Amino acid sequence: MIVNYVSGLGPYIEQMIAQKHAVGYPYKTSERVLYMFDRFCAAEFPGANTITPEIGNAWAVIKPTEKTSSFLNRLAPVRELARYMIHTGTEAYVIPGELAPVEAQKHIPHIFSPEELKRFFQAADSQPILPKCRIRHLQIPVIFRLMYTCGLRPHEARLIQKEHLNLSESTIFIPESKGHKDRIVAMSPEMTKICSKYYPYAVREFPNSPYLFPCQRFKGAAYSSGWLTEAFHLCWNTAGLGEVAGNAPRPYDFRHTFATYRLYRWMKEKRELGALLPYLSVYMGHAHFSDTTYYIHLIPDFFSELSGMDLDAYGSLLPEVPYEY
Is 0.90 surpassed by the pTM of this model? Predict the structure, then answer.
């Protein structure tokens, strides 16, 4: 579909979107926001060819019926556009992050330390065999390892279907999730071996269930989110990890840990994040590119050797955006 932009910002919007598409990033949700922003600028600020403070602050007014999450999602692509324009040498106003409502402050995830990961998975591997849940002790270590090594959302892991696991190609097909496009997630050789050992048990015990992790209690249906949370805390407590500073750990934090560790490795290796981030964003199924760049903020707090890093060097990659729950 060809979109005609009508404001003076149209060329910049087209160029930035073309850049996203060139590296394989769908960017559909942000495109819709930028389309609305283009119309807004043409109607309210005709003749403007950059984002001024007046334009930015007018756009950053929360509507009476607008949810905080929708408000933040509406601001994020415009911030990214401003940073893109600055990167091309054009002066532009970046809407300040402090304009976000107080209640919209980000939940800071728990990033697992190497020691926590080691002890957690040791506890997961030591779960007892239960007569009423014959392969539960096999499912727990596999499902959490998939979440950590592939950055899956909890519900994506719970709902994996057998037919979507391709052991010969070491991939998992993830159907449309959270309104995003379908995607294919690659597994490491080690994760593929783990799944290969587990898969025959799932087929033998539940031949008629479509799910990779079927629940015996519910005759092969997928496990609930409550079960996953319960299993997580069981492993956490069995490992003797106890309380932590900050927010309590959750299953979703395996996904955050995956992204943070990946970015940390790239930054430590001095790789070009601008070229690699779009691929990570697509791999994780993020709706907004900035959902991925958010993790750059977390790295200095969790990795002491990079605590003195200059975040300004990554300014073009760091729009203030809503946190993904």
Answer: no
